[in-house]
Design brief:
The protein is of the alpha/beta class and 364 residues long. Among the domains are: 45 residues, no CATH class; 131 residues, Rossmann fold, CATH 3.40.50.1000. Helices cover 36% and strands 17% of the residues. The chain contains 14 helices and 16 strands. The chain has a seven-stranded parallel beta sheet with strand order 1-16-15-14-2-5-6, with helices on both faces. It has a five-stranded parallel beta sheet with strand order 8-7-9-10-13, sandwiched between helices. The chain has a two-stranded antiparallel ribbon with strand order 3-4. Helix 6 links the parallel strand 5 and strand 6. Helix 7 runs parallel beside helix 8 and helix 9 packs across helix 10. The two termini are 21 Å apart. Bound molecules: magnesium ion (MG). The site of magnesium ion has 8 residues, from loops. The site of magnesium ion (MG) has 8 residues, from loops. It is an enzyme of class 3 (hydrolase). Keywords: Acetylation, Chloroplast, Hydrolase, Phosphoprotein, Photorespiration, Plastid, Transit peptide. GO terms for molecular function: phosphoglycolate phosphatase activity. Photorespiratory enzyme that dephosphorylates the 2-phosphoglycolate produced by the RuBisCO oxygenation reaction. Belongs to the HAD-like hydrolase superfamily. CbbY/CbbZ/Gph/YieH family.
């Protein structure tokens, strides 16, 4: 049920993934994917094509996976991996409330020597800000265990040796700015462009900074036309300017009353005006998985990805070659999982992560 051979059908082409150190060798990976292209500098290598290849792999006509099985023996799963990667919203908490049994479950996994990592596509907070949220909820989680897509954007720029004399234009909130600052990159945009408006009088032309070498787009509650035009000018007119998306989530959960337009809506606007596809660093792209695997020296077959969303969390785990567990404590219902329209099947599913405790007790 959990053998790696059962999961290869949704994997990214091996040429892009099954390499020992994907971050360090990213430029070589890019060149190996496109042998006709000469390597120039790592900054000008073409990561957009790398990502496009990943997108293709998600939609290719691949063999159908076996249906997900209910988790019956938690011990078997726990013993089979050394690391658990948890999505946060819908797995650890819902809005500002901790999900039942989470602290005890995390304590049990730690006591059994498991490495715990928390990965979120939400780019509005930095790792430090997420650390505070964990603390507020009474969970003891260190900053090093948290990977938000805001951090992933900065880590990606570092991994390609993004020139320090280039700037980053940010469409997004504070988390991205904080992570760029920590990584030593100069940026503009973000919350400072919230109030900016355009004035369409005859001959009006918007100036833009020609030293912007990357536009990072994340969820932005204060998205406006000024930001669209500024980001578009940078991408279209600055030679080699990168277009990086923290995620392309269709919806997010700003309140528990309904689903709200997610980061994918901001990314879609810039993609529409530039006619370019972004490089996505958040789930389901494998960038963060590769980064984690490299940082901790973990084999991906020793990782179990736990999430509540099929098209991000489970696909992220499958794209990375990990075991996958869907929890039904968030956005996915059992009927959605089992619908004939759903093609994304995790290895296992269960109601919530504290089932690890109940199923363990039942197995004794
Ligand atoms: Mg979630």
């Amino acid at each position: 049920m959990l053998s790696s051979s059962s999961r290869v059908s949704h994997s990214i082409p091996t040429a892009t993934l099954n390499l020992p150190n994907p971050i360090r060798f990213l430029p070589q990976i890019l060149c190996s994917c496109f042998p006709g292209q000469k390597r120039k500098t790592s900054y000008f290598s073409n990561p957009v094509k790398w990502n496009s290849r990943m997108e293709v792999s998600r939609t290719a006509n691949l063999p159908t996976r076996a249906s997900a099985q209910p988790l019956k023996n938690a011990d078997e799963l726990i013993d089979s991996v050394e690391t658990f990667i948890f999505d946060c919203d819908g797995v650890i908490w819902k809005g500002d409330s901790l999900i039942d049994g989470v602290p005890e479950t995390l304590d049990m996994l730690r006591s059994r020597g498991k490495r715990l990592v928390f990965v979120t596509n939400n780019s509005t907070k930095s790792r430090k800000q997420y650390g505070k949220k964990f603390e507020t909820l009474g969970l003891s989680v260190s900053e090093e265990e948290i990977f938000a897509s805001s951090f992933a954007a900065a880590a990606y720029l570092k991994s390609i040796n993004f020139p320090k004399d280039k700037k980053v234009y940010v469409i997004g909130e504070d988390g991205i700015l904080k992570e760029l600052e920590l990584a030593g990159f100069e940026y503009l945009g973000g919350p400072t462009d919230v109030e900016k408006k355009i004035e369409l009088k005859p001959g009006f032309l918007m100036e833009h900074d020609e030293s912007v070498g990357a536009v990072v787009v994340g969820f932005d509650r204060y998205f406006n036309y000024y930001k669209i035009q500024y980001g578009t000018l940078c991408i279209r007119e600055n030679p080699g300017c990168l277009f990086i998306a923290t995620n392309r989530d269709a919806v997010t959960h700003l309140t528990d009353a309904q689903e709200w337009a997610g980061g994918g809506s901001m990314v879609g606007a810039i993609s529409g005006s530039t006619q370019r596809e972004p490089l996505v660093v958040g789930k389901p792209s494998t960038f963060m998985m590769d980064y984690l695997s490299n940082k901790f020296g973990i084999s991906k077959s020793q990782i179990c990805m736990v999430g509540d969303r099929l098209d991000t969390d489970i696909l992220f785990g499958q794209n990375g070659g990990c075991k996958t567990l869907l929890v039904l404590s968030g956005v996915t219902t059992l009927s959605k999982l089992q619908s004939p329209d759903n093609s994304i099947q995790p290895d296992l599913y269960t109601n919530k992560i504290s089932d690890f405790l109940a199923l363990k007790a039942a197995a004794v």
